[in-house]
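[job 0412] stage=fold_complex status=start
inputs:
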Amino acid sequence: MDENRNDKESFFSEVYTVLREIPCGKVATYGLIATLSGRQQCARLVGQALRNVPANLSLPCHRVVNASGRLAPGWPEQKSLLTKEGVTFRSNRYVDMKRHLWNPLELINS
DNA sequence: AAATTGACGGTTA
DNA sequence: GTAACCGCCAATT
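[job 0412] stage=fold_complex status=done
writing structure:
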């Protein structure tokens, strides 16, 4: 049986699902999404998934940054998108994680 | 099949 | 706070 391939697709779906749960004005790290998707060590896979995602799915992929608050390379528009949602930056390329890092625990509490 | 790459994370310097 | 190094895992070459 091809169960292992099913696992991979499941992981991708989980990633997309988590993406939709990110509230406006918040950001999530690749590692956080990977953890919530069941693969804490597969942060890079999340990045690869996002890269493969077509823009027509309306997924808030611009709300995903790396653990340092760094935005995705080769995608300068991401900064504008985040700024438009109220996200502030520390320097010219780092998101203010202290303010805008999404805390999934709030979802449980709500 | 082996080596390289990649929208990364954590630790160390 | 920033930079360099290593470790992880799957996709690509």
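[job 0412] summary: The mean pLDDT of chain A is 87.
[job 0412] exit 0
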